[in-house]
Structure formats: structure tokens, C-alpha cells
Amino acid sequence: MTSREVKNNIYSVGAIDWDRRLFDELIPLPDGTSYNAYLIKDEKVALIDAVDPTKEKDLLSNLKGLGIEKIDYLISQHAEQDHSGAIPKVLEVYPEAKVVANEKCKGMLKDLLSLPEEKFLVIGDEEKLSLGKRSLEFIFAPWVHWPETFLTYLREEKLLFTCDLFGSHLATSDLYAIDEAKVYEAAKRYYAEIMMPFRSHIQRHLARLHNLPIEIIAPSHGPIYHRPNFILGAYQDWVSDEVKNEVVLFYISMHGSTQKMAEYLISALMRRGIKVLPFNLTKTDIGELAISLVDCGTILVGSPAVLGGLHPQVLYAVYLANALRPKTKFLSFFGSYGWGCRVLDILKEMTNNLKVEMIPPVLIKGYPKEKDFSLLEGLADEILKRHRESQIIKCGG
Ligand code: FEO
Questions:
Q1: In the list 128, 195, 228, 239, which could disulfide-bond 191, CB 3.0-4.6 Å?
Q2: Is the bond preceding residue 145 a cis peptide, omega within 30 degrees?
Q3: Looking at ligand 1, which atom is closest to the CA of residue 220?
Q4: DSSP code, position 53
Q5: How many angstroms does the Cα of residue 344 sit away from the middle of ligand 1?
Q6: Whole-number Å distance between alpha carbons of 323 and 197
Q7: In sequence order, what DSSP letters do the residues of 238-285 get, joined into one string?
């Protein structure tokens, strides 16, 4: 990738990773990603973040292309290696650069990259650093998604650098978020997979940003937001306490019994005007499941009994849902067993992070029969009732 000017001697100098398909050996990246770094040329030269170590040559080539011979400050907003991994190489080429970080980030950079103490300039929350005509202001934003992260505000340009916050795993040649529908999906996936467990922290950070004049938001993954209200509004919605009249229904079926129950429930909920997002876990991109959890009012888990417990793939999905801590209000279960099981106990134990009310489940023996379909109708009725009572469905809708 070549560098591109964002505005007034501020350049995007990072790298696009078109081919990456897995992050942290866990998260699918259907659209690749980018590791954005930004260079500000003023009387002093500042580099905001570095890139993943696999892309350090791109960063150095972009800096060379701009004729950069000296970097005064390397602002390290977040110690995770996709932004910090190339710092040792940058310091090798630009030995005068001071690594600007908060105390916690400094400690993590020392642990992860063995950077020496004398390389650091430690900054505090709301502290300013003059670059000459313009100054950087630092805004600590812990837990988006690590404890050390901070944002950097360039007041003279109304430009906010946010590292992971507001990012999207999206490899695109667009410098800006032009295709908002596509960026919205990628940013929501990113929020669901990485930021959602820290929803309450992000609520606080958004409140703090509320009165800041912002014209551009420059995250460290995905395109830059030249219409910041687009992403700020989306985040306000995602982190709010409001859920939608939606049921996420994920399940596995081994011999068709749980499948039949899932199909029946999908149609019973649809008949009641509830949006259903079904996921047969044998065919599911786990990222799609995470996105659906952002807004849903109810989670329905379906599993046959396997060795007395949940099917391992259901166990994995429940573990993820619990770890991601969606704001979902209700949880229930449906499934079939042959001779005995403790699936409900396991489900309760594994969802202890979720602030949900358990709706009585439907657990049947063998293939579903007429009386079992009546139970499923009852479960759909209960979900509708709870959605109405908790105002998820407004005004008797
Ligand atoms: Fe993009 Fe948390 O690193």
C-alpha cells in the first residue's frame, strides 16, 4: 500500500492485509483487515501506532516514500501486536523516536516487545504534547478491549485517532467509509467480536467524547470515518440497553429431532411477528452469530443430549455467547434426549455472565410429537409475552 494524505500533512501510512482470514487464531476475517498507522508532519513528526510485524516493510516503505528521515514521537495507543509489533523495527530505523504511551501501555510494551525503559515518554490522561503548530491530546479509554488503550485527539484538525475503537476488519482501497452499508456490517462484526464484552466501558467513553468537536475519526482497522456521526450513532445504538424484537436461535441436531423442533419454533415465532435469526451450528460462521447477538431480545439454544450433556459445538457457541456478554434479556432451551441428561444444569452454569431471565425450556424424549409441538407453541407464547412486558415490543406491536 502507498501512503495517502488524510488532510494537512497527516498521512495514512499503514498496511492492508487483503489475505488474512483469521485473527488471534480465533476470529474469522471474511474481508481481510488493515493495520492503519498515521503520520503527522509538523515541526515535530509523530507516528500514531505501527502495524502488525508481518507488514513492517509496508510501513517503512511508506515512511521512506514520504521522505521521512526522523520521527520524534511514536504514539503507541494500544500494546496488542497488530499495532505494536513493528515498533522495534521502526525504532531500529528511527532511533531518535520516543515511544509515547501511558504507564500501563509502557509496561505491556516492555513485556511483549522487550523495549528498554529509556525509549519511553509516559503521558497522562488529558495531557497534551506539542508538535509545533498543532498538539496531540491524550484521552485514556481503558477496556476497548485491553486495559491500557488511549485515544489521541488533534484538536486543530478536529481529528480523533481511536486505534481499535470504531474499527472494522475490512480490507478496502477506500481511504474513507464511502460504502456505509458494507462498513456498517464490518464495524458491527468487529464490535460484536471484540468490543461487546466491554459495553459499559464504551458507554462511558462515548459520553466523554460527546462534547468534543470531531470531523474525522481515524481508527486503526478499516476505513476512516469522514462522517463521524455514522459510526458514533451506530455505537450509541449497539451499546445502549435497548434490544430488538429478535430471537437468535442456534442449534445442532444429530438425528433430526432437534432440527424438527428448531423448524417448528422458527415458524411459531414468525407467526407471532418476532424476527428469528437461526443458526445451524454445523454451517455457521461464528462471526455472523456474534453480530446477531448484538441486538437480540432472546437467545434460544437447541441441542440433543450427548453423553448426558450439550453437543460440543453447542457448548462452544454457548461459551462464546457467555464470553461476549450481549445485552440479551431472555434465554431458553429446546432439545431432545434419549434416556437422561443434565443439559439444563450445564446451560445455566455456562451462562453466568449473561443478565438473562430463563424462560422455561422444552426438553423432550425422542422425536417430537403433537404434545411436544404444543409445548413449543407455549415457549413461543412465553417469548412473545416477555418481549411485550419488557417493552421490547412497543405498544402491543
Ligand atoms: Fe487491533 Fe486490539 O488490536
A1: 195
A2: yes
A3: 1
A4: G
A5: 36
A6: 7
A7: HHSS--EEEEEEEE--SSSHHHHHHHHHHHHHHHTT-EEEEEETTS--
49 φψ region: left (φ > 0), alpha (ψ -120 to 50), beta (else)? left
Residues with a CB atom less than 6 Å from ligand 1: 78, 80, 82-83, 145, 164, 220-221
For ligand 1, the distance from its centroid to the CA atom of residue 24, given in whole angstroms, is 10
For residue 252, the one-letter residue type is: I
Contact 113, 157 (CB under 8 A): no
Interval between CA 78 and ligand 1 midpoint (Å): 7
Query: HSE-up of 280 (CA within 13 Å, CB side)?
Result: 12
CB 290 within 8 A of CB 193: yes
Contact assessment for residue 108 and residue 162, using Cβ atoms and an 8 Å cutoff: no
- pLDDT (tens digit per residue) in 296-316: 999 999 999 999 999 999 999
Alpha helices in the chain (DSSP H): 56-65, 81-84, 87-93, 103-113, 180-190, 199-209, 228-239, 257-271, 286-293, 312-324, 343-350, 370-389
**SS3 category, 153:** strand
Strand, coil or helix: 388:
helix
Taking only the tens place, the pLDDT of each residue in 255-264 is: 999 999 999 9
What's the grid cell of residue 18? 487483503
Does the pLDDT of residue 396 top 60, yes or no?
A: no
